[in-house]
Amino acid sequence: MARGIGTAKGVAGLALALLLAGCGGNADREVPMDQLDAESIFKLGEQSLATNRKAEDAVHYFAEVERLYPYSEMAKRALIMQAYGYHKDKDYENSRAAAQRYIDTYPAEEDAAYAKYLLALSYYDQIDEVGRDQGLTFQALQALRAVIEEYPDSDYAKSAILKFDLAFDHLAAKEMEIGRYYLRRHHFTAALNRFRVVVEQYQTTAHTAEALYRLIECYLSLGLTDEAQTAGAILGYNYQSTVWYEDGYRLLTKQGLQPEAKGTGWLATIYRRVIKGEWL
Protein backbone atom coordinates (compact mmCIF):
# COMPACT_ATOMS: atom_id res chain seq x y z
CA MET A 1 0.00 0.00 0.00
CA ALA A 2 2.81 2.43 0.93
CA ARG A 3 4.43 1.68 -2.39
CA GLY A 4 1.24 2.60 -4.26
CA ILE A 5 0.95 5.89 -2.40
CA GLY A 6 4.56 6.70 -3.14
CA THR A 7 4.01 5.94 -6.82
CA ALA A 8 0.92 8.22 -6.93
CA LYS A 9 2.87 11.03 -5.35
CA GLY A 10 5.65 10.48 -7.81
CA VAL A 11 3.25 10.75 -10.75
CA ALA A 12 1.73 13.93 -9.33
CA GLY A 13 5.18 15.36 -8.73
CA LEU A 14 6.26 14.52 -12.27
CA ALA A 15 3.08 16.09 -13.69
CA LEU A 16 3.71 19.24 -11.69
CA ALA A 17 7.33 19.41 -12.80
CA LEU A 18 6.30 19.10 -16.44
CA LEU A 19 3.70 21.80 -16.03
CA LEU A 20 6.13 24.14 -14.29
CA ALA A 21 8.67 23.58 -17.04
CA GLY A 22 6.19 24.81 -19.61
CA CYS A 23 4.34 27.29 -17.40
CA GLY A 24 2.98 30.31 -19.23
CA GLY A 25 1.75 28.74 -22.43
CA ASN A 26 -1.86 28.04 -23.32
CA ALA A 27 -0.96 24.38 -23.78
CA ASP A 28 -0.79 24.07 -19.98
CA ARG A 29 -4.55 24.41 -19.80
CA GLU A 30 -4.99 21.20 -21.79
CA VAL A 31 -3.42 19.18 -18.95
CA PRO A 32 -6.17 17.90 -16.65
CA MET A 33 -5.89 19.69 -13.35
CA ASP A 34 -7.72 16.94 -11.49
CA GLN A 35 -4.50 14.95 -11.53
CA LEU A 36 -2.92 17.47 -9.16
CA ASP A 37 -3.68 18.35 -5.57
CA ALA A 38 -4.82 21.85 -4.56
CA GLU A 39 -1.39 22.99 -3.38
CA SER A 40 0.27 21.94 -6.64
CA ILE A 41 -2.25 23.84 -8.75
CA PHE A 42 -1.88 26.86 -6.48
CA LYS A 43 1.89 26.76 -6.99
CA LEU A 44 1.32 26.76 -10.73
CA GLY A 45 -0.66 29.95 -10.31
CA GLU A 46 2.10 31.54 -8.24
CA GLN A 47 4.70 30.50 -10.81
CA SER A 48 2.60 31.96 -13.60
CA LEU A 49 2.23 35.26 -11.74
CA ALA A 50 5.98 35.45 -11.26
CA THR A 51 6.93 34.68 -14.86
CA ASN A 52 4.13 36.04 -17.07
CA ARG A 53 3.39 39.66 -17.82
CA LYS A 54 -0.29 38.87 -18.10
CA ALA A 55 -1.99 37.27 -15.13
CA GLU A 56 -4.66 35.49 -17.18
CA ASP A 57 -3.07 32.03 -16.86
CA ALA A 58 -2.44 32.49 -13.15
CA VAL A 59 -6.07 33.40 -12.57
CA HIS A 60 -7.06 30.24 -14.44
CA TYR A 61 -5.04 28.07 -12.06
CA PHE A 62 -6.45 29.76 -8.98
CA ALA A 63 -9.96 29.31 -10.35
CA GLU A 64 -9.22 25.61 -10.86
CA VAL A 65 -8.27 25.29 -7.19
CA GLU A 66 -11.68 26.70 -6.29
CA ARG A 67 -13.48 24.45 -8.76
CA LEU A 68 -11.76 21.21 -7.83
CA TYR A 69 -11.30 21.79 -4.10
CA PRO A 70 -14.20 24.01 -2.98
CA TYR A 71 -14.42 25.08 0.66
CA SER A 72 -10.80 24.05 1.26
CA GLU A 73 -8.20 26.30 2.84
CA MET A 74 -6.42 26.53 -0.51
CA ALA A 75 -9.69 27.62 -2.17
CA LYS A 76 -9.82 30.63 0.15
CA ARG A 77 -6.29 31.62 -0.76
CA ALA A 78 -6.97 30.97 -4.44
CA LEU A 79 -9.94 33.33 -4.44
CA ILE A 80 -7.99 36.25 -2.98
CA MET A 81 -5.21 35.53 -5.48
CA GLN A 82 -7.75 35.71 -8.31
CA ALA A 83 -8.66 39.21 -7.15
CA TYR A 84 -4.97 40.13 -7.05
CA GLY A 85 -4.28 38.56 -10.46
CA TYR A 86 -7.13 40.41 -12.11
CA HIS A 87 -5.95 43.66 -10.55
CA LYS A 88 -2.43 43.05 -11.78
CA ASP A 89 -3.90 42.66 -15.26
CA LYS A 90 -5.84 45.92 -14.79
CA ASP A 91 -9.05 43.96 -15.17
CA TYR A 92 -10.63 46.04 -12.42
CA GLU A 93 -14.20 44.84 -12.87
CA ASN A 94 -13.28 41.19 -12.36
CA SER A 95 -10.90 42.10 -9.56
CA ARG A 96 -13.77 43.83 -7.76
CA ALA A 97 -16.04 40.85 -8.34
CA ALA A 98 -13.51 38.37 -6.93
CA ALA A 99 -12.69 40.59 -3.95
CA GLN A 100 -16.38 41.10 -3.17
CA ARG A 101 -16.99 37.37 -3.43
CA TYR A 102 -14.23 36.77 -0.90
CA ILE A 103 -15.70 39.36 1.47
CA ASP A 104 -19.16 37.82 1.15
CA THR A 105 -17.94 34.23 1.56
CA TYR A 106 -15.21 34.68 4.17
CA PRO A 107 -16.00 37.93 6.05
CA ALA A 108 -14.22 36.86 9.24
CA GLU A 109 -11.01 35.63 7.61
CA GLU A 110 -7.75 37.54 7.97
CA ASP A 111 -7.53 38.18 4.22
CA ALA A 112 -10.90 39.98 4.27
CA ALA A 113 -8.99 43.18 5.02
CA TYR A 114 -6.84 42.68 1.92
CA ALA A 115 -9.92 41.87 -0.15
CA LYS A 116 -11.53 45.10 1.00
CA TYR A 117 -8.34 46.97 0.14
CA LEU A 118 -8.19 45.42 -3.34
CA LEU A 119 -11.80 46.42 -3.84
CA ALA A 120 -10.89 50.03 -3.04
CA LEU A 121 -7.83 49.89 -5.29
CA SER A 122 -9.97 48.70 -8.20
CA TYR A 123 -11.62 52.13 -8.11
CA TYR A 124 -8.64 54.19 -7.00
CA ASP A 125 -6.26 52.97 -9.70
CA GLN A 126 -8.64 54.21 -12.39
CA ILE A 127 -8.36 57.80 -11.15
CA ASP A 128 -5.55 58.69 -13.52
CA GLU A 129 -6.41 62.20 -14.62
CA VAL A 130 -8.53 65.13 -13.45
CA GLY A 131 -10.77 65.07 -16.50
CA ARG A 132 -12.24 61.62 -15.87
CA ASP A 133 -15.71 60.93 -14.52
CA GLN A 134 -15.65 61.77 -10.83
CA GLY A 135 -18.03 58.91 -10.01
CA LEU A 136 -15.00 56.62 -9.74
CA THR A 137 -13.38 59.01 -7.29
CA PHE A 138 -16.44 59.01 -5.04
CA GLN A 139 -16.57 55.20 -5.15
CA ALA A 140 -12.86 55.03 -4.32
CA LEU A 141 -13.37 57.34 -1.34
CA GLN A 142 -16.24 55.23 -0.02
CA ALA A 143 -14.29 51.99 -0.40
CA LEU A 144 -11.12 53.46 1.14
CA ARG A 145 -13.12 54.81 4.06
CA ALA A 146 -14.50 51.29 4.65
CA VAL A 147 -10.95 49.93 4.92
CA ILE A 148 -9.94 52.71 7.32
CA GLU A 149 -12.98 52.29 9.57
CA GLU A 150 -13.22 48.49 9.57
CA TYR A 151 -9.50 47.67 9.82
CA PRO A 152 -8.00 50.75 11.54
CA ASP A 153 -4.93 48.94 12.93
CA SER A 154 -3.93 47.25 9.68
CA ASP A 155 -1.22 48.26 7.23
CA TYR A 156 -3.98 48.49 4.62
CA ALA A 157 -5.63 51.26 6.64
CA LYS A 158 -2.39 53.27 6.65
CA SER A 159 -2.13 52.98 2.88
CA ALA A 160 -5.85 53.70 2.49
CA ILE A 161 -5.51 56.95 4.47
CA LEU A 162 -2.82 58.22 2.09
CA LYS A 163 -4.86 57.26 -0.95
CA PHE A 164 -8.02 58.75 0.56
CA ASP A 165 -6.26 62.11 0.92
CA LEU A 166 -5.05 61.95 -2.68
CA ALA A 167 -8.51 61.04 -3.98
CA PHE A 168 -10.04 63.85 -1.92
CA ASP A 169 -7.49 66.24 -3.40
CA HIS A 170 -8.44 64.95 -6.83
CA LEU A 171 -12.06 66.03 -6.34
CA ALA A 172 -10.91 69.50 -5.32
CA ALA A 173 -8.68 69.66 -8.40
CA LYS A 174 -11.69 68.89 -10.58
CA GLU A 175 -13.67 71.75 -9.03
CA MET A 176 -10.71 74.07 -9.59
CA GLU A 177 -10.39 73.02 -13.21
CA ILE A 178 -14.06 73.78 -13.90
CA GLY A 179 -13.86 77.04 -11.96
CA ARG A 180 -10.88 78.23 -13.98
CA TYR A 181 -12.71 77.30 -17.18
CA TYR A 182 -15.63 79.56 -16.23
CA LEU A 183 -13.32 82.32 -15.03
CA ARG A 184 -11.43 82.44 -18.32
CA ARG A 185 -14.76 82.97 -20.06
CA HIS A 186 -15.83 85.67 -17.60
CA HIS A 187 -18.66 83.56 -16.18
CA PHE A 188 -17.82 84.88 -12.73
CA THR A 189 -20.84 83.63 -10.80
CA ALA A 190 -20.44 80.08 -12.12
CA ALA A 191 -16.72 80.21 -11.38
CA LEU A 192 -17.08 81.44 -7.80
CA ASN A 193 -19.59 78.69 -7.06
CA ARG A 194 -16.90 76.12 -7.90
CA PHE A 195 -14.23 77.88 -5.85
CA ARG A 196 -16.68 78.14 -2.97
CA VAL A 197 -17.10 74.35 -3.00
CA VAL A 198 -13.32 73.95 -2.58
CA VAL A 199 -13.17 76.40 0.33
CA GLU A 200 -16.19 74.91 2.11
CA GLN A 201 -15.84 71.19 1.37
CA TYR A 202 -12.18 70.61 0.51
CA GLN A 203 -10.44 73.07 2.82
CA THR A 204 -7.85 70.49 3.88
CA THR A 205 -6.53 70.02 0.34
CA ALA A 206 -3.67 71.78 -1.43
CA HIS A 207 -6.10 73.83 -3.56
CA THR A 208 -7.66 76.07 -0.90
CA ALA A 209 -5.17 78.93 -1.19
CA GLU A 210 -5.69 79.24 -4.94
CA ALA A 211 -9.47 78.93 -4.50
CA LEU A 212 -9.45 81.93 -2.12
CA TYR A 213 -7.36 83.93 -4.58
CA ARG A 214 -9.75 83.06 -7.42
CA LEU A 215 -12.64 84.19 -5.22
CA ILE A 216 -10.94 87.57 -4.88
CA GLU A 217 -10.74 87.73 -8.68
CA CYS A 218 -14.39 86.78 -9.12
CA TYR A 219 -15.77 89.09 -6.46
CA LEU A 220 -13.74 92.09 -7.65
CA SER A 221 -14.96 91.44 -11.19
CA LEU A 222 -18.56 91.46 -9.89
CA GLY A 223 -17.96 94.60 -7.82
CA LEU A 224 -18.52 92.75 -4.52
CA THR A 225 -15.67 94.30 -2.56
CA ASP A 226 -16.70 93.13 0.93
CA GLU A 227 -16.55 89.51 -0.16
CA ALA A 228 -13.24 90.06 -1.99
CA GLN A 229 -11.68 91.66 1.10
CA THR A 230 -12.93 88.86 3.33
CA ALA A 231 -11.47 86.22 1.01
CA GLY A 232 -8.21 88.13 1.20
CA ALA A 233 -8.36 88.18 5.01
CA ILE A 234 -8.79 84.40 5.21
CA LEU A 235 -6.07 83.92 2.62
CA GLY A 236 -3.72 86.16 4.58
CA TYR A 237 -4.43 84.44 7.88
CA ASN A 238 -3.92 80.87 6.67
CA TYR A 239 -1.66 81.23 3.62
CA GLN A 240 0.30 84.47 4.07
CA SER A 241 3.58 82.95 2.88
CA THR A 242 2.13 81.77 -0.45
CA VAL A 243 2.27 83.41 -3.85
CA TRP A 244 -1.55 83.30 -3.86
CA TYR A 245 -1.68 85.74 -0.95
CA GLU A 246 0.87 88.03 -2.58
CA ASP A 247 -1.14 88.13 -5.80
CA GLY A 248 -4.43 88.53 -3.92
CA TYR A 249 -3.03 91.38 -1.82
CA ARG A 250 -1.85 93.08 -5.01
CA LEU A 251 -5.29 92.79 -6.60
CA LEU A 252 -6.97 94.34 -3.58
CA THR A 253 -4.53 97.21 -3.03
CA LYS A 254 -4.74 98.19 -6.70
CA GLN A 255 -8.35 99.08 -5.98
CA GLY A 256 -7.55 100.80 -2.70
CA LEU A 257 -8.75 97.83 -0.62
CA GLN A 258 -7.19 95.83 2.20
CA PRO A 259 -7.64 92.21 3.28
CA GLU A 260 -10.17 92.37 6.12
CA ALA A 261 -13.35 90.60 7.14
CA LYS A 262 -16.38 92.62 6.08
CA GLY A 263 -20.09 92.04 5.58
CA THR A 264 -22.23 89.09 6.62
CA GLY A 265 -21.82 86.66 3.70
CA TRP A 266 -20.67 83.05 3.75
CA LEU A 267 -16.99 84.00 3.77
CA ALA A 268 -17.53 86.27 6.77
CA THR A 269 -19.14 83.32 8.55
CA ILE A 270 -16.10 81.15 7.78
CA TYR A 271 -13.81 83.91 9.03
CA ARG A 272 -15.68 84.19 12.32
CA ARG A 273 -15.77 80.45 12.87
CA VAL A 274 -12.31 79.41 11.72
CA ILE A 275 -10.25 82.44 12.63
CA LYS A 276 -12.19 84.14 15.46
CA GLY A 277 -13.62 80.92 16.91
CA GLU A 278 -17.14 82.34 16.99
CA TRP A 279 -19.56 79.50 16.17
CA LEU A 280 -22.79 81.13 17.33
TrEMBL record:
Statement: the UniProt record of this protein carries the keyword Lipoprotein: yes
Membrane topology: Lipid-anchor
Subcellular location: Cell outer membrane
Main location, first listed in the record: membrane
Keywords, in A-Z order: Cell outer membrane, Lipoprotein, Membrane, Palmitate, Signal
Task performed by this protein: Part of the outer membrane protein assembly complex, which is involved in assembly and insertion of beta-barrel proteins into the outer membrane.
Subunit: Part of the Bam complex.
Chain segments annotated as transmembrane: none
Signal peptide positions on this chain: 1-27
Similarity annotation: Belongs to the BamD family.
Domain of life: Bacteria
Domain Outer membrane lipoprotein BamD-like: 37-231
Protein's name according to its UniProt entry: Outer membrane protein assembly factor BamD
Gene3D superfamilies: Tetratricopeptide repeat domain
Gene source species: Albidovulum sediminicola
UniProt KW Membrane keyword: yes
